[in-house]
Amino acid sequence: MKRLIAAGVLLIAVTLTYFSSVAYIKHTYNETSELLEECITAYNNQNGAETAAKKLGDYWDKHEQNLSIFANHGRIDEIELAISSIEIYSKTEEKEIFKEYAGTVKTLLHQLLEDTLPSFHSIL
Question: Based on the structure, what is the number of domains in the chain?
Fold first, then answer.
């Protein structure tokens, strides 16, 4: 009987941990995507892109350590590198390069979210 109780408690703990990690990743994904869109809009309007990119970078820096607990470190580092590039190119007139890195961040964020959500593909 004690083993069943211990197994039940462990199952509940693992389930709660999983769902809290998914919620954290979804929240971070939504906020980062929103900040990225603000940055793209500011760059296209040529109004405050550097500030928006800095805000995006600061937000990511604050959350990347916690994300590394739940997700692949390599993927987190790729996103960080692309966001750093956005910060650099937000100060220039290199529109194609800026848009390329913005698209890369969008893609990597989407992959990060898809990899953490339960699906038949991710289970197998």
Answer: 1
* Residue 13 included in any domain: no
Q: Is the residue at 4 inside a domain?
A: no
In three-state form (DSSP H/G/I as H, E/B as E, the rest C), the secondary structure along the chain is: CHHHHHHHHHHHHHHHHHHHHHHHHHHHHHHHHHHHHHHHHHHHCCCCHHHHHHHHHHHHHHHHHHHHHHCCHHHHHHHHHHHHHHHHHCCCCCHHHHHHHHHHHHHHHHHHHHHHCCCHHHHC
Q: What is the pTM of this model?
A: 0.83
124 residues of the chain, pLDDT tens digit each: 888 899 999 999 988 988 888 899 999 999 999 999 999 999 988 888 899 999 999 999 999 888 888 888 888 999 999 999 999 998 888 889 999 999 999 999 999 888 877 666 655 5
| Domain hosting residue 103, numbered range | 19-117
